[in-house]
Amino acid sequence: MLELRLSRESWLAIPKTVVTITKLLLHDNHLQIHGDPDLFTIPWNEKMFSEKKKLKMVIMKTTVFFPTTPGIRRAIQIAKSKLEASDYVLNSFINILTADQSRYLLEALSNDDIDPVLKPTLRLLRPLLSLFSARLMPVYLGLGGNRIRETHQLWDEITKKNLYKEEFLSYWRELELDLCIAPCFACPAPRSVDVAKLSPALSYTSLYNFLDFPVGILPIDKENVEDQTKLEIEYKYFDAVCKLVKMTTKGATGMPLAIQMIGLPYQEEMVLCGMGSS
């Protein structure tokens, strides 16, 4: 297993480096001249970056779909403690993914265009979904369906995405949030042979890619011996993917543990401000 050797000082310098690079990219229309000329001209917002105010953040340590390892949860706790020491307002993440007893998931499976090969299997599984849906991997469920064949179907999906984004933004603003802190992945960097098998762990980042939200990745600490001990004792899940997580995390002592800081569109300065406080 490859071990990345980064000093703590180099980790602390990451936000400053990213800020400098971002400012340079936005300076004198650099992105438009040397990149995409169709991009909007958006200058660096120094007021948003430097304004001294209590940022309101929400913390997500794990999800029921893909539980994080003890080391990742510890990294989130470290970031939380640092932000609390900086007098930020922090709230816990409310898990709404299965709040409807998976009715939406069941309806989607009933109405979606499912691969004929998978239909017999899903017909057998459907009565059981409501019993253990909190442990299902949505990424795997989606592999066999939702195939877009015609242009009008694509436009329908784009409309659905925009409606979902509006709903998400509305909920975010209702809570008056500035930022969200969450894991980047369910475990430290896995072995290269296991990466493809752990695609459901992308659920921690794919949502914000889907929504086009700015995200900053910040190393917090490294996997230690205590994390490895707790992995054996606490990480007791019995599906194949979580077993693989446990196996690939064994021996990961010294690997970086990172968090992601998520903000609203066109508020990269707010994200960088939060990263500098973590």
From TrEMBL:
It holds the Pfam family Amidase. Residues 76-272 form the Amidase domain. GO terms for molecular function: amidase activity; fatty acid amide hydrolase activity. InterPro entries: Amidase_dom, AS_sf, Endocannabinoid_amidase. This is Amidase domain-containing protein. It comes from the Eukaryota. GO terms for biological process: fatty acid catabolic process.
